[in-house]
Amino acid sequence: MTDWNQRQKRKQDVTARAALPNHMYGYCRVIHCGKPARAGTPDGLDERYCRAHADHNQRHGSPLKGSYTAKELNPYRRAALAWIVSHEDSRWVQNAIQRVKGLYQQAGPYVEAFRLRGLPPQQRAKAALARLRKHGIDPRLVLAAWLAVEMLIQDDPQPVQGAEFKRVQAAKVVHRMASGSHRRWVREVLSPVWPGQKQAQVQELHVYPRSRGRVLRHLGESLESAVELLVEHHLSDVQAFKREHDAAAVSGARPYPRAWVSRPRQKDDEKT
Ligand SMILES: [Zn+2]
């Protein structure tokens, strides 16, 4: 009788323990995903999503929505830069430029991409800013990248709201501005053709820092702190400028809208 009771109790314990991870971590928060959430990912704990959605979130700042493409971002970046250049005297433009320069100066020493491995994300975010400084990236390009992301999210019919997606998207653009580290050297190797002979062989190493994970969150947070007052005071002006710019570009490219035809096209027209 005692034996049976003990076995029964042990069985209950095991069942309870097996159920524990689910109670602790639950399921992926993406609707209809249904997979258990992954507690540990290579880049830290993620108790919200399954492996696939956690990975997507690390790369793009959203478990489902992909990153904006260069084609989508470029018109916004061009317009934002043109606005900044023509409003250089503005107090808030000056303020934001100074803040980006401040980030550059506080980023610490330049670290080659070869040596980033193993550094905590916050350090790698600083290293990204130090690379921008080293490569002489104009702070106005950094500001334009952020403003472009702000505007694109507002124009997106299915946007992802919230700070994280915005920070990650802007950080990805800015991260890309400072290239990786490259090394090239010559070493002597044994000739595969002539036994005992040596020949020179060119070795190359190209390392691009990973653009994912918490690095992007930290970098995005820093960028946001530099640009937030400019956004607060002038985002609507930049948006208006872009709309005017778009309208002017369309009317400048052709004298009248595409659907309008002044006279029927003839074959001879194409030859002249
Ligand atoms: Zn999932």
Describe, in short, the structure shown.
The chain is mainly alpha-helical and 272 residues long. It has helices spanning 2-25, 51-60, 70-86, 91-105, 121-134, 139-155, 163-177, 214-253, 267-271, and strands at residues 40-41, 44-45, 181-190, 198-207.
Strand and helix layout:
Elements (H helix, E strand, L loop, with lengths): L1 H24 L14 E2 L2 E2 L5 H10 L9 H17 L4 H15 L15 H14 L4 H17 L7 H15 L3 E10 L7 E10 L6 H40 L13 H5 L1
Antiparallel strand pairs: 1-2, 3-4
Helix pairs in contact: 3-6, 3-8, 4-5, 4-6, 4-8, 5-8, 6-7, 6-8, 7-8
Q: Give the percentage of residues in beta strands.
A: 5-15%
Number of strands: 4
What is the helix tally? 9
Tell me the count of domains: 2
Radius of gyration: 27 Å
Order of helices and strands: HEEHHHHHHEEHH
Largest sheet data: 2 strands, antiparallel
Shape: extended
| Structural category | mainly alpha
Biggest sheet strand order reads 1-2
Q: Which percent range fits the helix content?
A: 55-70%
**Mean residue pLDDT:** 85
Bound molecules: zinc ion
Oligomer: single chain
Report, as a whole number of angstroms, the end-to-end distance.
106 Å
